[in-house]
Amino acid sequence: MQNEFADLQLPATVRDFQPEWGLVLGSGLGPFVEKLDITHALPFCEIAELPQSAVPGHAGRFVFAELAGKRAVIAQGRVHLYEGHTARAVTAGVRFMAAVGVSKLILTNAAGTANPDFLPGDWMMLTDHLNLTHTTPLLGGPHFFDMSEVYSQRLRMAFAKNAREPGVMLHEGVYAGLLGPQYETPAEVRMLRHLGADAIGMSTVLEAIQARALGMEIAGFSCLTNWAAGLGKRPLSHAEVLEVGLSAAGNFARLLARGLPDG
Ligand code: HPA
Q1: Is the dihedral of CA 198, 121, 85, 18 positive or negative?
Q2: Which residue among 4, 82, 169, 243 is the active-site one?
């Protein structure tokens, strides 16, 4: 399928930057970019082909900067299916990243933990996902795309090694991506746990499908911001998700600062 960003006219600083890595920041993780030396920032609203987000905590711009010594483009904010966008619109940012040269992509999200051993405030690296959105950005093609290793084992091994140094609690598990926008019921959480989900969220899976179809190598990280419904004592709230995301962002920054794999 056509990449609508292939012939985009970009400022010279962006065009010449040639980022190797892409990073998509989930809810509450936007301030991650504040510590970076930004080469260029491109608001989503300046790119006509990109859908715009209206959710608090999703600022909406691409930041071009060095990340652990590697050139990267960082999506500060993303759009979601539950805002009423199509799967193709939700994944436009990934196609933009491919068009500017990204070959390795880190997807992050805020998620509820459905695994009693994974605590709110911890991070989980995705080993696999359950796409429960009932849609895909590949409607129209390519068809019958292999999905046996969505989250690169090579990248997973490298990040797991970096996490072994003290300070960062990094679990590994399966992410269930749902449509939202309401949180789950306790019965749905029990069902998802039976299906093999460790973390539950409303993003990432469609971007992962699109990125793989474009030949990117992917790593995925969930910031576990809350107990999934029925597992904690308090009702779920977006404010809590943003707050825990903010306080856990530093650990993720530390993990990435330990290095991005070569090659
Ligand atoms: N469920 C779905 N999405 C989420 C959650 C959750 O518990 N927490 C943050 N995003």
Answers
A1: negative
A2: 82
Question: Which of 58, 115, 208, 229 is flagged as catalytic?
Answer: 58
Is 238 among the residues known to form the active site? yes
Q: How far apart are CA 246 and CA 142, in angstroms?
A: 37
Average pLDDT for residues 175-201, to the nearest whole number? Answer: 97
Specify whether 226 is catalytic: yes
Say what the pTM is: 0.94
Strand pairing of 61-67 and 70-76? antiparallel
Domains of the chain with bracketed CATH: 12-257 (3.40.50.1580)
* Both structure tokens of 77: 């904010």
Asked if 58 is an active-site residue, the reply is yes
> pLDDT tens, 137-160?
999 888 888 999 999 999 999 999
Q: What are phi and psi of 27, to 5 degrees?
A: -50, 130
